[in-house]
Amino acid sequence: MIIYLNGEFVPETQARVSVFDRGFLFGDGVYEVIPVFGGRPLRLAEHLERLTRSLAEVRIDNPHDRSGWESLFTTLLEKNPGGDRSLYVQVTRGVARRDHAFPTGVRPTVFAMVNPIVPQNPAVLEQGVAAVVVDDHRWSRCDIKAITLLPNVLARQEALDAGATEAILIRQGLATEGAASNLFVVGDGVIVTPPKDRSLLPGITRDLVVELAQEAGLPLMESTIPEQSLRVAEEIWLTSSTREILPVTRLDGRPVGAGVPGPVWRRVHGLYQDYKARLRET
Ligand code: PMP
């Protein structure tokens, strides 16, 4: 694999970052993940906008303008040919002696790589996945895509240890999102997803799903989701760039709705696949 690191494209074995990098010492950085289908990045402008916002919120200078990022990604994709892939890009505050205070005169560390997107196992789309509900132990700025992901890692592992695929996080009685995904619930035929605020990441897939559902005239509401609503939901879905729209059919060991992916999921999943097909053709 060819890696982008600080202005150079190098084989992964030659990519080196200092142990004094603030990403390593403090988790002081932000990241972005952009899916690429048929060579076309999905919602690139939105991903770059979110990266710009994450950087601004943590006061790291954006190392590139939009066209700079685009040409970096184009070169990286050319150097790593393949099928459906995702771009991972990480910017940390840079390398400096360990001190909490921002260092002066330091350039951010910029790292990017390309990973294959593993196609969804057809059994998952037939049967759905299991999820568990866990307490959200994260900070109060979950809207920033920070590399500091320890609570997300612990929540995901708790789900895996329980034989489930994802953890749904509860904060002050409300279900906000998954450990690495956004949350949708269907109740009384209405699709509900929590409004974007500081308790969750503004997912690009989330926004696309909202847009596609609204365009198709499906009833959709942005509203908080009390934990109890999960227990009586007809359908639960989790969305992310790399896993698309996952139907959750078991929650804490009990069936969700009929215990199989529901009709509203099937419809929206179809709309999403059509959107991807159109992207590939552009
Ligand atoms: N929430 C969290 C906490 C995430 O980590 C992710 C994916 N990285 C998402 C939501 C989904 O965001 P997106 O659709 O932009 O991948």
Structural commentary:
- This protein is an alpha+beta fold and 282 residues long.
- The chain is built from eight helices and 16 strands.
- It has helices at 22-26, 44-58, 66-79, 122-127, 150-161, 204-215, 227-231, 263-281; strands at 2-5, 8-11, 29-37, 40-41, 85-92, 109-116, 129-135, 166-171, 174-178, 181-187, 190-193, 220-222, 225-226, 235-240, 244-251, 254-255.
- A hairpin with a 2-residue loop joins strand 3 and strand 4.
- It is globular and about 55 Å long.
- The model has no long low-confidence stretch (mean pLDDT 97).
- Bound molecules: 4'-deoxy-4'-aminopyridoxal-5'-phosphate.
- 4'-deoxy-4'-aminopyridoxal-5'-phosphate binds at residues 33, 152, 177, 180-182, 201, 203-206, 239-241.
